[in-house]
Specification:
Sig_transdc_resp-reg_receiver; Rossmann fold; CheY-like_superfamily; two-component regulatory system; 33% helix; alpha/beta; OB fold (Dihydrolipoamide Acetyltransferase, E2P); transcription cis-regulatory region binding; phosphoprotein; 15 strands
């Protein structure tokens, strides 16, 4: 992407578009290059203006934003898509449509700035890799974990997750962006992602792709050593032999 991020704002409500345009105008590194009131108009604007990012409403007359995003993702050099919507129920569908951000209305300035910064970091190679993941053998499997946070709905790419840790009623996701609480149970996560995560403790699932090894801690118990992370989740005694066998096959 260029130094200035070119943005297309898509919403059937003129006041909503104008509000986003004003918010973007306060950001030095972003510029609104076009506006659109619907899906067809948005696709035409993308071809004409070549934006880096599309801020798009989901609920619009005619073709909705989810369908439009899927069409955009098939373009040869697609812009990143960020949804701005009044409903959080579409979060998973949004990321299946290749969205890189999801904002709940009314959008706040700091939320918008954060999601556009994230979109800037997501380069074209990453977008292509995400597309390949969605075409994998399990087309219906989730590629993101959703969480309701103070910023709205946060979707965490599965490939960025180091491990899940359960603590009483909650599960914390440890990922490249930090730590996030989610509503899923560890049992549900293990069932859904057993191919890519392995249980190392009654309260922990670790991503197989990040495992570097197992080592004994000074206190005497075993811990996992993870690539790109300082965290070392504990391995329970009953899982040590299983982990050793897995490491022997790596």
């Amino acid at each position: 992407m260029s130094t200035i991020m070119d943005v297309l704002v898509v919403d059937d409500e003129a006041l909503a578009r104008e509000r986003l345009v004003r918010m973007i105008s306060r950001m030095e590194e972003c510029e609104v290059v076009a506006q659109a009131a619907g899906a067809d108009e948005a696709l035409q604007a993308i071809k004409a203006a070549g934006p880096d990012v599309v801020l798009m409403d989901i609920s619009m007359p005619g073709e909705d934003g989810l369908s439009a995003a899927k069409r955009i993702s098939t373009m040869e050099d697609p812009p990143a898509v960020v949804f701005c919507t009044a409903y959080d129920k579409h979060a998973v569908e949004a990321f299946e449509a290749q969205a890189v951000g999801y904002l709940l209305k009314p959008v706040r300035q700091e939320q918008l700035e954060q999601v556009l910064q994230n979109a800037r970091k997501l380069n074209r190679m990453q977008i292509a890799a995400l597309d390949d993941m969605n075409k994998a053998d399990r087309p219906n499997a989730r590629k993101h974990i959703s969480a309701k946070t103070r910023r709205g709905v946060e979707l965490i790419p599965l490939e960025d997750i180091f491990y899940f840790l359960a603590d009483q009623k909650y599960v914390t996701v440890y990922h490249r962006g930090g730590e996030t609480l989610i509503d899923d149970t560890l049992k549900e996560l293990e069932s859904e992602f057993e191919a890519s995560f392995i249980r190392i403790h009654r309260n922990a699932l670790v991503a197989r792709s990040y495992i570097e090894g197992m080592e004994r801690a000074p206190e005497g118990h075993y811990v996992m050593r993870l690539r790109d992370s300082e965290e070392k989740p504990v391995v329970s005694r009953r899982h040590v032999s299983k982990i050793r066998a897995m490491l022997a096959e790596m």
